[in-house]
Design brief:
alpha/beta, 8-stranded mixed sheet, two-stranded antiparallel ribbon, 26% helix, globular
């Protein structure tokens, strides 16, 4: 029999945040639940002189990481392999401090911040959702690299050989998940924040602009009316900018050094919008996930994966080696929210990445009947986690926010 929640599921919503690793955001939860593959508190990375720099629960909302940690392919490679070269190298996750030293101009005091992590009480929204619903121990970014190529995997199941931040226009050989759904008379939408903080994927998805794109205020309205599309992808605000009436709108993406607390508010707002409509809450699965680790420490070695359908050249990777998309990037936070997810679910023993998103949506709404990349077709799906009876209202959280 299918999981109980699938009988009522009508909407899948994905909220993709920015540039934070699993250990940085959720690693402290291991102390409360040993099933969560977080931090013991004794993990270290060496500095340039071989001195151990330990993890510390000192992460703060905005006043750290003032030098953007390197999260491009070459920098991430240093973080994972600690500068090893050649075919026999082995990933050890020991290059994070050395990598950040290149950004801080060898200021070791600043470089130590790359090993900081949040105490759970500083992230009440994210940690509550992780403890109340399903947290993934092994959700990795699709590429050991930056934003654009990782987000492409969430939209297409591939980055078409890209490992960097180039804006590239996609042909029609492999359709986005939005095109697949629209072609089959389903509905899909990307909700960007506003005109001054628009989607980074607009160049690649212009084919269906009027049907596919909507603002975050429209998402809130659609939730109130119970009119969400079958599939929704939500993007946070990517920059501080003036708002209506002369006020300031703060970036909510949590990219360093944007305000992590504002991102908490944004995640909670998305959750509340779904939670506060009874019919929508009973028919929606919400995935909260991050595009990539942003150069921040995580202790888990990224695993090998099904090779991609493309290969990046050595000149693209900057490492002197080609990349066959046959291993994943650094681990990121990922949480699946639904009233059908049993409380306190910890997903272990299965490897997830962003290609799982279009694969899950395609299998659920289209019965898998769409052209997919090999990488996507071989990836996991996650709707089996909607396995319990619907939890009563007094067994699921909701969030209040002050001014």
């Amino acid at each position: 029999m299918p999981p109980a929640g699938l009988d009522n599921l009508k909407h899948i919503v994905v909220l993709m945040m920015e540039n934070r690793s699993f250990d940085h955001m959720l690693g402290a939860l291991k102390a409360a639940n040993p099933q969560i593959d977080g931090l013991n508190g004794d993990e270290t990375n060496p500095d340039a002189d071989g001195n151990d720099v330990p993890v510390k629960p000192l992460a703060d909302y905005r006043d750290q990481l003032v030098h953007d940690p390197d999260h491009h392919f070459l920098g991430t490679d240093l973080q994972i392999f600690e500068g090893q070269t050649g075919d026999g190298r082995a990933a050890n996750m020991k290059g994070f401090v050395k990598s950040y030293l290149t950004q801080t101009k060898n200021d070791i005091n600043l470089a130590k911040e790359i090993m900081y992590y949040f105490q759970p009480e500083k992230l009440p929204v994210l940690t509550t959702l992780a403890q109340e619903f399903a947290v993934f121990n092994s959700w990795f970014s699709s590429i050991p690299g930056p934003t654009i190529c990782n987000r492409a995997f969430a939209h297409y199941g591939t980055s078409f050989g890209q490992v960097g931040m180039s804006i590239f226009y996609i042909g029609k050989d492999i359709e986005s998940i939005y095109s697949r759904l629209l072609d089959a008379n389903h509905t899909a939408k990307i909700y960007y924040y506003d005109q001054k903080s628009s989607t980074m994927e607009i160049v690649n998805l212009l084919q269906h602009q009027s049907e596919v794109f909507g603002s975050f205020s429209q998402f809130i309205s659609d939730c109130k009316l119970g009119q969400l599309p079958d599939y929704s992808f939500i993007e946070p605000c990517y920059n501080d900018h003036p708002g209506p009436g002369g006020g300031e709108i703060l970036a909510s993406d949590q990219h360093p050094t944007h305000d992590v607390h504002e991102g908490e508010r944004f995640i909670g707002t998305v959750y509340n919008a779904i939670r506060n409509n009874d019919s929508l809450w009973a028919t929606t699965a919400l995935l909260v996930v991050y595009d990539e680790h942003g150069g921040l420490y995580d202790h888990v070695v990224p695993p090998a994966c099904t090779p991609g359908d493309f290969t990046a050249k050595p000149t693209d990777t900057g490492t002197g080696m080609s990349f066959a998309f046959d291993r994943l990037g650094v681990r990121v936070p990922a949480i699946l929210v639904s009233p059908y997810v049993p409380k306190g679910t910890v997903v272990s023993g299965r490897v997830f990445e962003h290609a799982c998103i279009p694969n899950t949506v395609t299998k659920f709404f289209l019965n898998g009947d769409a052209k997919r990349t090999n990488r996507e077709a071989q990836s996991e799906t996650f709707l089996d986690l909607l396995s319990g009876p619907m939890r009563p209202d007094d067994d699921v959280p909701w969030f209040e926010f002050g001014g």
